[in-house]
Amino acid sequence: MVKRRQFLGCLTALGGSVLLSACGGGGSEDGSGSTSSSSAAKATTTARAATGSTNGTAMPPASSITDKAGGVWTLSNGVIYRNGAVVGNNYNVSLVLWYGGRMYHCNKSGYFYVNAEVANGWLPCTDPRIAVAQTPGGFYGMNGHYDYTYTPAQLVTILKAMGCTSYRVGCTSDPTQINAVAKLAQTFQSAGIKLLVLIQQGLYDSTGKLFSGESTAYSAAYSAGSTIARALSPYGVTMYECGNELTRDGAIILDSTNAGTKALDFNNANWPVMRGAMRGMIDGVKSVQSSAKCGINFCVNDVGASDALWDGMQPDGSGGHPTVRWDITTWHNYEVYGDIFNIGTDGGGAGIDLPIYCKARYGVPFMITEWNTGPEQAEAYRANYISAKLTEFYQQRKTHNIQSVMYYVLDSGNDTFGIMMNGTPINPSYSAFTSFTASNPDN
Protein backbone atom coordinates (compact mmCIF):
# COMPACT_ATOMS: atom_id res chain seq x y z
CA MET A 1 0.00 0.00 0.00
CA VAL A 2 1.41 3.38 -0.98
CA LYS A 3 2.33 5.70 1.85
CA ARG A 4 0.44 8.97 2.12
CA ARG A 5 3.45 11.22 1.69
CA GLN A 6 4.50 9.27 -1.43
CA PHE A 7 1.03 9.17 -2.94
CA LEU A 8 -0.32 12.63 -2.30
CA GLY A 9 0.41 15.28 -4.79
CA CYS A 10 -0.84 13.08 -7.66
CA LEU A 11 -4.22 14.79 -7.76
CA THR A 12 -5.18 17.06 -10.63
CA ALA A 13 -8.28 18.79 -11.88
CA LEU A 14 -10.17 17.21 -14.75
CA GLY A 15 -12.98 18.91 -16.60
CA GLY A 16 -14.17 20.96 -13.66
CA SER A 17 -14.11 18.03 -11.24
CA VAL A 18 -11.59 17.10 -8.59
CA LEU A 19 -9.39 14.06 -9.10
CA LEU A 20 -9.84 12.10 -5.93
CA SER A 21 -8.55 8.97 -4.28
CA ALA A 22 -8.84 7.35 -0.91
CA CYS A 23 -6.93 9.08 1.87
CA GLY A 24 -5.09 7.08 4.47
CA GLY A 25 -6.34 8.16 7.85
CA GLY A 26 -4.91 8.53 11.28
CA GLY A 27 -3.54 5.02 11.36
CA SER A 28 -0.03 3.91 10.50
CA GLU A 29 2.00 5.65 7.78
CA ASP A 30 1.38 2.77 5.42
CA GLY A 31 -2.26 3.78 4.97
CA SER A 32 -3.12 4.94 1.48
CA GLY A 33 -3.55 8.66 1.00
CA SER A 34 -4.81 11.55 -1.04
CA THR A 35 -4.60 15.26 -1.49
CA SER A 36 -2.72 17.95 -3.19
CA SER A 37 -3.48 21.58 -3.32
CA SER A 38 -2.48 23.74 -6.20
CA SER A 39 -4.27 27.04 -6.38
CA ALA A 40 -5.59 26.04 -9.79
CA ALA A 41 -7.19 22.89 -8.38
CA LYS A 42 -8.77 24.83 -5.58
CA ALA A 43 -10.15 27.40 -7.95
CA THR A 44 -11.65 24.64 -10.07
CA THR A 45 -13.57 23.20 -7.12
CA THR A 46 -15.04 26.38 -5.74
CA ALA A 47 -16.32 29.41 -7.53
CA ARG A 48 -17.77 29.55 -10.97
CA ALA A 49 -21.48 29.96 -10.48
CA ALA A 50 -23.77 32.92 -10.88
CA THR A 51 -24.44 35.14 -7.90
CA GLY A 52 -27.59 34.03 -6.14
CA SER A 53 -29.84 35.47 -3.44
CA THR A 54 -28.36 36.35 -0.08
CA ASN A 55 -27.83 33.41 2.26
CA GLY A 56 -30.83 33.11 4.56
CA THR A 57 -33.35 34.57 2.10
CA ALA A 58 -36.80 33.22 2.91
CA MET A 59 -39.99 33.15 0.86
CA PRO A 60 -42.19 34.66 2.12
CA PRO A 61 -41.49 37.52 2.62
CA ALA A 62 -39.38 37.36 -0.56
CA SER A 63 -41.42 36.85 -3.73
CA SER A 64 -38.68 34.70 -5.33
CA ILE A 65 -35.24 33.27 -4.61
CA THR A 66 -32.37 32.95 -7.10
CA ASP A 67 -29.93 30.09 -6.58
CA LYS A 68 -26.20 30.23 -7.46
CA ALA A 69 -26.84 28.71 -10.88
CA GLY A 70 -29.27 31.50 -11.71
CA GLY A 71 -32.44 29.43 -11.26
CA VAL A 72 -35.46 31.38 -10.01
CA TRP A 73 -37.59 29.69 -7.34
CA THR A 74 -41.15 30.75 -6.65
CA LEU A 75 -43.96 29.59 -4.37
CA SER A 76 -47.58 29.46 -5.53
CA ASN A 77 -50.51 27.84 -3.72
CA GLY A 78 -48.16 25.80 -1.53
CA VAL A 79 -46.13 24.41 -4.45
CA ILE A 80 -42.48 25.25 -5.26
CA TYR A 81 -41.38 26.00 -8.82
CA ARG A 82 -37.93 26.52 -10.34
CA ASN A 83 -37.98 28.45 -13.59
CA GLY A 84 -41.67 27.65 -13.85
CA ALA A 85 -41.37 23.87 -13.35
CA VAL A 86 -42.52 22.02 -10.23
CA VAL A 87 -39.53 20.91 -8.13
CA GLY A 88 -40.02 17.29 -7.21
CA ASN A 89 -42.77 16.11 -4.90
CA ASN A 90 -43.80 19.10 -2.76
CA TYR A 91 -47.12 20.45 -1.49
CA ASN A 92 -48.61 22.47 1.38
CA VAL A 93 -45.36 24.44 1.55
CA SER A 94 -45.41 27.42 3.90
CA LEU A 95 -41.74 28.51 3.72
CA VAL A 96 -38.91 28.25 1.21
CA LEU A 97 -35.40 28.97 2.52
CA TRP A 98 -32.10 29.49 0.70
CA TYR A 99 -29.40 28.53 3.18
CA GLY A 100 -25.85 27.25 2.87
CA GLY A 101 -26.11 26.77 -0.88
CA ARG A 102 -29.18 24.53 -0.64
CA MET A 103 -32.90 25.14 -0.92
CA TYR A 104 -35.00 24.05 2.05
CA HIS A 105 -38.73 24.13 2.57
CA CYS A 106 -41.08 23.73 5.51
CA ASN A 107 -44.62 22.48 5.05
CA LYS A 108 -47.67 23.58 6.98
CA SER A 109 -47.20 20.69 9.42
CA GLY A 110 -43.79 22.08 10.43
CA TYR A 111 -41.61 19.47 8.69
CA PHE A 112 -38.43 20.59 6.91
CA TYR A 113 -37.00 19.16 3.69
CA VAL A 114 -33.83 19.92 1.72
CA ASN A 115 -33.48 19.84 -2.05
CA ALA A 116 -30.95 17.16 -3.01
CA GLU A 117 -29.83 15.09 -5.99
CA VAL A 118 -32.33 12.27 -5.43
CA ALA A 119 -35.31 10.95 -7.37
CA ASN A 120 -38.03 13.00 -5.71
CA GLY A 121 -35.79 16.02 -5.17
CA TRP A 122 -36.36 16.35 -1.41
CA LEU A 123 -35.00 14.70 1.73
CA PRO A 124 -36.25 15.11 5.33
CA CYS A 125 -34.17 17.31 7.62
CA THR A 126 -34.43 19.93 10.35
CA ASP A 127 -34.26 23.72 10.20
CA PRO A 128 -30.63 24.41 9.16
CA ARG A 129 -30.63 27.77 10.96
CA ILE A 130 -30.79 26.26 14.44
CA ALA A 131 -27.50 26.57 16.33
CA VAL A 132 -26.48 23.65 18.54
CA ALA A 133 -24.96 24.01 22.01
CA GLN A 134 -21.39 22.79 21.88
CA THR A 135 -19.73 20.68 24.56
CA PRO A 136 -16.45 22.40 25.56
CA GLY A 137 -13.24 20.44 25.15
CA GLY A 138 -11.90 18.38 22.28
CA PHE A 139 -12.19 21.03 19.56
CA TYR A 140 -8.48 21.31 18.76
CA GLY A 141 -7.34 17.91 17.53
CA MET A 142 -4.29 16.27 16.00
CA ASN A 143 -3.72 13.09 14.00
CA GLY A 144 -0.99 10.65 14.89
CA HIS A 145 0.07 7.05 14.40
CA TYR A 146 0.18 4.07 16.72
CA ASP A 147 3.80 3.28 15.80
CA TYR A 148 5.37 6.62 16.68
CA THR A 149 8.62 6.46 18.64
CA TYR A 150 7.24 9.07 21.04
CA THR A 151 6.18 7.63 24.38
CA PRO A 152 2.60 8.23 25.49
CA ALA A 153 3.86 10.66 28.14
CA GLN A 154 5.86 12.57 25.54
CA LEU A 155 2.78 12.81 23.33
CA VAL A 156 0.76 14.25 26.19
CA THR A 157 3.40 16.91 26.77
CA ILE A 158 3.56 17.75 23.06
CA LEU A 159 -0.20 17.95 22.62
CA LYS A 160 -0.73 20.10 25.70
CA ALA A 161 1.98 22.50 24.55
CA MET A 162 0.08 22.85 21.27
CA GLY A 163 -3.26 23.42 22.96
CA CYS A 164 -4.69 20.18 21.57
CA THR A 165 -7.50 18.53 23.49
CA SER A 166 -8.14 15.53 21.22
CA TYR A 167 -6.07 13.03 19.26
CA ARG A 168 -6.96 10.66 16.43
CA VAL A 169 -5.10 7.41 15.98
CA GLY A 170 -5.92 4.28 14.02
CA CYS A 171 -5.44 0.58 14.53
CA THR A 172 -6.57 -2.74 13.15
CA SER A 173 -7.54 -5.68 15.32
CA ASP A 174 -3.90 -6.81 15.31
CA PRO A 175 -2.80 -7.24 18.96
CA THR A 176 0.41 -5.26 18.45
CA GLN A 177 -1.51 -2.24 17.20
CA ILE A 178 -4.22 -2.55 19.84
CA ASN A 179 -1.67 -2.77 22.65
CA ALA A 180 0.10 0.35 21.41
CA VAL A 181 -3.17 2.32 21.30
CA ALA A 182 -4.22 0.95 24.69
CA LYS A 183 -1.06 2.41 26.23
CA LEU A 184 -1.90 5.75 24.65
CA ALA A 185 -5.46 5.58 25.92
CA GLN A 186 -4.38 4.83 29.47
CA THR A 187 -2.03 7.81 29.58
CA PHE A 188 -4.44 10.15 27.78
CA GLN A 189 -7.27 9.27 30.15
CA SER A 190 -5.41 10.61 33.16
CA ALA A 191 -4.22 13.64 31.17
CA GLY A 192 -7.75 14.63 30.10
CA ILE A 193 -7.12 14.35 26.35
CA LYS A 194 -9.91 12.80 24.29
CA LEU A 195 -8.95 9.93 22.01
CA LEU A 196 -10.75 9.21 18.75
CA VAL A 197 -9.80 5.71 17.62
CA LEU A 198 -10.03 4.96 13.92
CA ILE A 199 -10.94 1.32 13.32
CA GLN A 200 -8.87 0.39 10.26
CA GLN A 201 -11.20 -2.27 8.90
CA GLY A 202 -11.40 -2.41 5.13
CA LEU A 203 -13.46 -4.19 2.50
CA TYR A 204 -11.10 -7.07 1.75
CA ASP A 205 -10.39 -10.45 3.30
CA SER A 206 -6.97 -11.73 4.37
CA THR A 207 -6.17 -12.78 0.79
CA GLY A 208 -6.86 -9.33 -0.57
CA LYS A 209 -10.17 -10.19 -2.21
CA LEU A 210 -13.28 -8.05 -1.81
CA PHE A 211 -15.65 -9.60 0.71
CA SER A 212 -18.23 -11.76 -1.03
CA GLY A 213 -21.23 -9.87 0.30
CA GLU A 214 -22.79 -7.74 2.99
CA SER A 215 -23.04 -10.44 5.65
CA THR A 216 -19.41 -11.53 5.23
CA ALA A 217 -18.19 -7.93 5.47
CA TYR A 218 -20.46 -7.33 8.45
CA SER A 219 -19.09 -10.34 10.36
CA ALA A 220 -15.45 -9.40 9.83
CA ALA A 221 -16.08 -5.78 10.78
CA TYR A 222 -18.17 -6.74 13.82
CA SER A 223 -15.28 -8.85 15.08
CA ALA A 224 -12.80 -6.00 14.58
CA GLY A 225 -15.05 -3.42 16.22
CA SER A 226 -15.83 -5.52 19.27
CA THR A 227 -12.21 -6.61 19.71
CA ILE A 228 -10.90 -3.04 19.63
CA ALA A 229 -13.63 -1.66 21.88
CA ARG A 230 -13.15 -4.46 24.41
CA ALA A 231 -9.47 -3.62 24.68
CA LEU A 232 -9.84 0.15 24.86
CA SER A 233 -13.06 0.77 26.78
CA PRO A 234 -11.38 0.22 30.20
CA TYR A 235 -9.18 3.23 29.44
CA GLY A 236 -11.93 5.74 28.79
CA VAL A 237 -12.14 5.58 25.00
CA THR A 238 -15.70 6.50 24.03
CA MET A 239 -15.32 7.64 20.38
CA TYR A 240 -14.59 5.46 17.37
CA GLU A 241 -14.37 6.23 13.67
CA CYS A 242 -15.57 3.15 11.81
CA GLY A 243 -13.48 2.73 8.69
CA ASN A 244 -11.32 5.14 6.76
CA GLU A 245 -12.62 6.70 3.55
CA LEU A 246 -14.36 3.54 2.44
CA THR A 247 -16.49 5.50 -0.04
CA ARG A 248 -13.27 6.29 -1.92
CA ASP A 249 -12.14 2.68 -2.23
CA GLY A 250 -11.62 1.66 -5.85
CA ALA A 251 -14.35 -0.96 -5.51
CA ILE A 252 -16.89 1.65 -4.40
CA ILE A 253 -16.33 4.94 -6.24
CA LEU A 254 -17.00 4.56 -9.95
CA ASP A 255 -14.96 7.55 -11.06
CA SER A 256 -12.56 9.15 -8.62
CA THR A 257 -12.89 12.49 -10.41
CA ASN A 258 -16.46 12.79 -9.10
CA ALA A 259 -17.14 14.78 -5.95
CA GLY A 260 -19.67 12.20 -4.72
CA THR A 261 -22.79 14.36 -4.67
CA LYS A 262 -24.92 11.69 -6.35
CA ALA A 263 -25.56 8.13 -5.21
CA LEU A 264 -25.02 7.12 -8.83
CA ASP A 265 -21.35 8.03 -8.39
CA PHE A 266 -20.90 4.75 -6.49
CA ASN A 267 -20.76 1.07 -7.43
CA ASN A 268 -24.19 -0.47 -6.94
CA ALA A 269 -22.96 -4.09 -6.91
CA ASN A 270 -20.27 -3.53 -4.27
CA TRP A 271 -22.22 -1.04 -2.17
CA PRO A 272 -23.61 -3.73 0.20
CA VAL A 273 -20.05 -4.80 1.08
CA MET A 274 -19.19 -1.29 2.25
CA ARG A 275 -22.52 -0.92 4.03
CA GLY A 276 -21.99 -4.25 5.79
CA ALA A 277 -18.51 -3.25 6.94
CA MET A 278 -19.76 0.05 8.33
CA ARG A 279 -22.71 -1.53 10.10
CA GLY A 280 -20.51 -4.30 11.47
CA MET A 281 -17.98 -1.93 13.01
CA ILE A 282 -20.68 0.17 14.64
CA ASP A 283 -22.56 -2.84 15.99
CA GLY A 284 -19.34 -4.49 17.15
CA VAL A 285 -18.32 -1.42 19.15
CA LYS A 286 -21.77 -1.01 20.65
CA SER A 287 -21.95 -4.68 21.64
CA VAL A 288 -19.17 -3.81 24.09
CA GLN A 289 -19.95 -0.13 24.76
CA SER A 290 -23.57 0.68 24.12
CA SER A 291 -22.99 4.35 24.94
CA ALA A 292 -19.93 4.75 22.68
CA LYS A 293 -20.11 7.31 19.88
CA CYS A 294 -19.37 5.93 16.43
CA GLY A 295 -18.54 7.98 13.36
CA ILE A 296 -18.47 7.25 9.66
CA ASN A 297 -16.13 9.38 7.56
CA PHE A 298 -16.53 10.80 4.10
CA CYS A 299 -14.45 12.87 1.68
CA VAL A 300 -14.80 15.78 -0.70
CA ASN A 301 -18.59 16.23 -1.15
CA ASP A 302 -19.78 12.64 -0.64
CA VAL A 303 -23.33 13.58 0.36
CA GLY A 304 -24.61 11.17 -2.29
CA ALA A 305 -23.03 8.38 -0.28
CA SER A 306 -23.89 9.67 3.18
CA ASP A 307 -27.54 10.27 2.29
CA ALA A 308 -27.92 6.85 0.69
CA LEU A 309 -26.36 5.07 3.65
CA TRP A 310 -28.42 7.04 6.18
CA ASP A 311 -31.67 6.30 4.35
CA GLY A 312 -31.00 2.66 3.39
CA MET A 313 -30.76 3.35 -0.34
CA GLN A 314 -28.71 1.71 -3.06
CA PRO A 315 -26.91 3.79 -5.70
CA ASP A 316 -29.50 2.60 -8.23
CA GLY A 317 -32.22 4.37 -6.21
CA SER A 318 -33.82 1.30 -4.68
CA GLY A 319 -34.80 1.58 -1.02
CA GLY A 320 -35.66 -0.56 1.96
CA HIS A 321 -32.09 -1.70 2.59
CA PRO A 322 -30.33 -1.66 5.98
CA THR A 323 -29.57 1.83 7.20
CA VAL A 324 -26.22 3.03 8.54
CA ARG A 325 -26.79 5.41 11.44
CA TRP A 326 -23.79 7.08 13.02
CA ASP A 327 -23.43 9.24 16.14
CA ILE A 328 -20.85 11.59 14.63
CA THR A 329 -20.52 12.72 11.03
CA THR A 330 -16.81 12.83 10.22
CA TRP A 331 -15.28 14.34 7.09
CA HIS A 332 -11.87 14.89 5.53
CA ASN A 333 -11.18 18.27 4.00
CA TYR A 334 -7.86 18.94 2.29
CA GLU A 335 -7.36 22.18 0.41
CA VAL A 336 -7.68 20.54 -3.01
CA TYR A 337 -11.23 19.48 -2.13
CA GLY A 338 -12.33 23.08 -1.66
CA ASP A 339 -13.66 25.08 1.28
CA ILE A 340 -15.87 22.78 3.33
CA PHE A 341 -18.24 25.70 3.94
CA ASN A 342 -18.67 26.23 0.19
CA ILE A 343 -17.62 22.96 -1.40
CA GLY A 344 -18.23 22.42 -5.11
CA THR A 345 -20.49 19.84 -6.69
CA ASP A 346 -19.98 17.55 -9.65
CA GLY A 347 -19.47 19.36 -12.91
CA GLY A 348 -18.20 22.46 -11.13
CA GLY A 349 -21.63 23.51 -9.90
CA ALA A 350 -22.43 25.84 -7.04
CA GLY A 351 -20.93 25.05 -3.66
CA ILE A 352 -22.76 24.05 -0.50
CA ASP A 353 -22.05 24.56 3.19
CA LEU A 354 -21.37 20.92 4.02
CA PRO A 355 -21.48 21.05 7.85
CA ILE A 356 -24.78 22.94 7.71
CA TYR A 357 -26.23 20.36 5.35
CA CYS A 358 -25.07 17.47 7.54
CA LYS A 359 -26.33 19.14 10.70
CA ALA A 360 -29.80 19.49 9.16
CA ARG A 361 -29.85 16.03 7.58
CA TYR A 362 -28.38 13.79 10.29
CA GLY A 363 -28.76 15.74 13.52
CA VAL A 364 -25.43 14.63 15.01
CA PRO A 365 -22.15 16.47 15.73
CA PHE A 366 -19.72 17.10 12.88
CA MET A 367 -15.97 16.46 13.05
CA ILE A 368 -13.30 17.30 10.48
CA THR A 369 -10.95 14.44 11.27
CA GLU A 370 -8.31 15.25 8.64
CA TRP A 371 -7.42 18.65 7.22
CA ASN A 372 -4.33 20.27 5.75
CA THR A 373 -3.06 21.83 2.56
CA GLY A 374 -0.95 19.79 0.11
CA PRO A 375 2.45 18.18 0.67
CA GLU A 376 4.14 20.40 -1.90
CA GLN A 377 3.44 23.69 -0.14
CA ALA A 378 6.16 25.77 1.51
CA GLU A 379 5.98 26.16 5.27
CA ALA A 380 5.11 29.86 5.02
CA TYR A 381 2.10 28.97 2.88
CA ARG A 382 1.15 26.16 5.25
CA ALA A 383 1.35 28.48 8.26
CA ASN A 384 -0.98 31.00 6.63
CA TYR A 385 -3.34 28.19 5.67
CA ILE A 386 -3.40 26.89 9.24
CA SER A 387 -4.23 30.32 10.64
CA ALA A 388 -6.93 30.96 8.05
CA LYS A 389 -8.63 27.57 8.43
CA LEU A 390 -8.53 27.57 12.23
CA THR A 391 -10.12 31.02 12.18
CA GLU A 392 -12.86 29.75 9.87
CA PHE A 393 -13.45 26.55 11.84
CA TYR A 394 -13.50 28.37 15.17
CA GLN A 395 -15.96 31.03 14.02
CA GLN A 396 -18.37 28.44 12.65
CA ARG A 397 -18.11 25.79 15.35
CA LYS A 398 -21.36 26.57 17.19
CA THR A 399 -23.61 27.47 14.27
CA HIS A 400 -22.41 24.39 12.38
CA ASN A 401 -22.20 21.92 15.31
CA ILE A 402 -18.50 21.27 14.67
CA GLN A 403 -17.23 19.26 17.61
CA SER A 404 -13.59 18.86 16.59
CA VAL A 405 -11.09 19.70 13.85
CA MET A 406 -8.09 17.36 13.67
CA TYR A 407 -4.98 18.48 11.81
CA TYR A 408 -3.17 15.90 9.70
CA VAL A 409 -0.56 15.16 11.03
CA LEU A 410 1.67 15.55 14.09
CA ASP A 411 4.79 13.93 12.58
CA SER A 412 4.97 12.60 9.02
CA GLY A 413 8.67 11.84 9.25
CA ASN A 414 9.45 14.83 7.04
CA ASP A 415 8.07 18.29 6.28
CA THR A 416 5.32 17.27 3.83
CA PHE A 417 2.45 17.18 6.35
CA GLY A 418 3.91 17.01 9.82
CA ILE A 419 3.88 19.96 12.16
CA MET A 420 6.93 18.62 13.97
CA MET A 421 9.65 16.13 13.19
CA ASN A 422 11.45 13.93 15.71
CA GLY A 423 10.17 16.13 18.53
CA THR A 424 11.27 19.41 16.96
CA PRO A 425 8.60 21.91 15.84
CA ILE A 426 8.47 22.78 12.14
CA ASN A 427 8.06 26.53 11.88
CA PRO A 428 6.28 28.74 11.06
CA SER A 429 3.50 26.11 10.86
CA TYR A 430 3.87 25.03 14.48
CA SER A 431 3.85 28.62 15.75
CA ALA A 432 0.78 29.45 13.67
CA PHE A 433 -1.11 26.54 15.22
CA THR A 434 -0.05 27.16 18.81
CA SER A 435 -0.59 30.90 18.59
CA PHE A 436 -4.16 30.38 17.50
CA THR A 437 -5.03 27.82 20.18
CA ALA A 438 -3.49 30.02 22.87
CA SER A 439 -5.58 33.01 21.82
CA ASN A 440 -8.88 31.23 21.20
CA PRO A 441 -10.09 29.06 24.10
CA ASP A 442 -11.80 25.74 23.50
CA ASN A 443 -15.13 26.65 25.09
Q: Please identify which CATH superfamily of the largest domain we are dealing with.
A: Glycosidases
User: Whole-Å distance between the termini?
Assistant: 40 Å
Q: What is the CATH T-level topology of the largest domain?
A: TIM Barrel
Give unreliable regions as ranges. 1-49
Estimated radius of gyration: 21 Å
- The CATH architecture of the largest domain comes to Alpha-Beta Barrel
The total domain count is 2
Enumerate how many helices there are, as a single number.
10
CATH class of the largest domain, named: Alpha Beta
Quick one: biggest sheet?
8 strands, parallel, barrel
Strand order in space, largest sheet: 12-13-14-15-16-17-20-21
Coarse morphology: globular
Average pLDDT works out at 89
Would you count the extended β strands for me? 23
Task: Please state roughly what percent of the residues sit in beta strands, choosing from under 5%, 5-15%, 15-25%, 25-35%, 35-45% or over 45%.
Answer: 15-25%
Structural class: alpha/beta
Helix content: 25-40%
Describe it.
By secondary structure, the chain is of the alpha/beta class. The chain folds into two domains: 4-47 and 132-439, TIM Barrel; 58-125, no CATH class. Helices cover 28% and strands 22% of the residues. It is built from ten helices and 23 strands. The strands form six sheets. An eight-stranded parallel barrel has the order 12-13-14-15-16-17-20-21, surrounded by six helices. The protein has a five-stranded antiparallel β-sheet with strand order 3-8-9-10-11, with helices on one face. α5 links the parallel β14 and β15 (239-242). α5 (214-232) runs parallel beside α6 (271-288). Mean pLDDT is 89; it is low at 1-49. Keywords: Signal. This is Glycoside hydrolase family 5 domain-containing protein. InterPro entries: GH. Residues 31-58 have a biased composition (Low complexity). Residues 1-22 form the signal peptide.
